[in-house]
């Protein structure tokens, strides 16, 4: 095993060896591996990025596991960069507060708590909150925001330490983090250790139906080891004695699902109707057939021709194009489509951590958003397409002055 990555040969959930490769994105830098100017001359580590479908349980997954320490010990992504994300956190907290009758005696813990944004909403309900996130830089930010945070990777041993220090939790949340976890058994063992009897485990992650339907290939990257359907998720949670008691489809990150779980109680059939609805939806979308993923791959390659063809035409006509948003997924799109500084002069982004740095792989400079109005390029390719409405609204002056936005997927369009 290389210290920087390991190759897994078995399905992460059912251990099958029948893993079918349907999309090969080639050798990729880590998606949040932004670099300083002085680092650009150094060789950039890259890792094979290919996506597989388990022909037994249906889990879509990666087989190269990059050492999490390389990706998460210091993390530039900040949850609070989007109003839409913060509104989503507010609704999750409110739903749990009402559903669980939370009060000042309640304890809420968040796995992958990032800058503490989600927990800050539980704090407004006077709950006791604890963040759990391995990124030391984010744990400091969260602590400054009044959110005590344990800079730890979550597993059964860190769960024991956290229980020892803070007691057990009425609510454990895990948004946009379950896909990042390699050892899912350890995570569920940790939840079982930390969660009070009668407590709830709420998780949210991008939904495979949306990924396939909306061609969200750029959300496939080394941070995301698994791409869950409800079928695979249900198989996983039931393996650890949990059951789904609520399920909502939510419009964030290009389409996600929010699931609430309790420990299994014999004879209780929770949420069966809505669970069965989504299971039949997945069957109708043929998510359990490998041909679905072959078609997805063909469409991604067609999209590459369309987007690069449009940008080349615009540049040939004398227009200037920049990127808007420097999300992890944007680094996958620009690297896989080979959209470099020859096509995008620069990228603007609202995240202070990313400004002044260069994107992994394509080395495109990242500047603050105010550069857009100062410079007035003709087109802005919205790489953070999941926040396109928020971005276009924010930049209406740019549009009024004749600036135009390019949306890259599910089909290329200029707005
Ligand atoms: O799962 C993950 C998601 C939740 O966040 C992580 N693996 C990593 C990360 O993925 P991402 O980087 O693709 O996330 P976002 O939230 O889609 O990134 C949006 C980017 O766009 C941020 O860098 C901030 C930027 N942005 C901006 O510049 N102006 C966003 C908005 C709304 C804006 O107005």
Overview of the molecule:
The protein has 415 residues and is of the alpha/beta class. It has helices at 68-72, 83-99, 117-123, 136-144, 156-166, 184-194, 208-213, 230-239, 272-284, 290-316, 328-336, 371-375, 388-394, 396-400; strands at 5-7, 19-28, 47-54, 60-62, 64-66, 107-111, 128-132, 149-150, 169-175, 195-206, 226-227, 242-250, 256-263, 321-324, 347-348, 366-367, 379-382, 404-407, 413-414. The strands form four sheets. It has a seven-stranded mixed sheet with strand order 8-7-6-9-10-13-12, with helices on both faces. Strands 16-15-14-17-18-19 form a six-stranded mixed sheet. α5 (156-166) runs parallel beside α6. Residues 77, 81-82, 176, 223, 253, 325-329, 349-351, 354, 369, 384, 386-387, 390-391, 394 line the site of ligand DWN.
Strand arrangement, major sheet: 8-7-6-9-10-13-12
The fraction of residues assigned to DSSP E strands is 15-25%
Low-confidence parts lasting 5 or more residues at pLDDT below 50?
Answer: none
Rg estimate, integer Å: 21 Å
Mean pLDDT: 96
Q: Tell me the span between the first and last alpha carbons.
A: 48 Å
Summarize the structure.
This protein has 415 residues and is of the alpha/beta class. The protein is 34% helix and 23% strand. Helix 2 packs across helix 3 and helix 5 (156-166) packs parallel to helix 6.
Question: Keywords for this structure?
Answer:
415 residues; alpha/beta; seven-stranded mixed beta sheet; six-stranded mixed beta sheet; 19 strands; binds ligand DWN
